[in-house]
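User: Teach me something about this protein's shape.
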Amino acid sequence: MAILYTIGALLLVGMIYAVFDHFRMKRLALERGKPNICEYARSFDYRNVDTSIIREVWKEVQDYLGSYNGTPFPVQADDLFEDTYNLHTDDLDEIYWTVADRLAIDTEKPEENPYFNQVTSVRNLVMFLHHQPRTGNS
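Assistant: First, the predicted structure itself:
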């Protein structure tokens, strides 16, 4: 019986955490206002960074985070995946693979990438993908 109480308590704590996190993200989204891809893109050196990667990462992170009050989450380049979004690394992998597949980016030998093991922010993910070679299927 004690096990059931423990499981119930853990589920309750998890639900409370999810509710607080939802309201934290909603507050952050409302403070930032409407999403602005132009402002986001200008925070990169868009003359030297592939703008299709900038745009697809923006879109995919927004899709993952959802919308608040009917408006997509306003992603910023310097948002940290773990600190800002509470994003688990498995979810980050899902965003990475989706963008890489969509843009025909080679996912082989990521350890040769200068941003390997440094993807902590939206900007770092864009730069990591930018430094990966294309597969030629684009």
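Now, about its shape. The first strand starts at residue 67 and ends at 68. The chain has a mean pLDDT of 90. If you'd like, I can walk through any region in more detail.
User: That's plenty for now, thanks!
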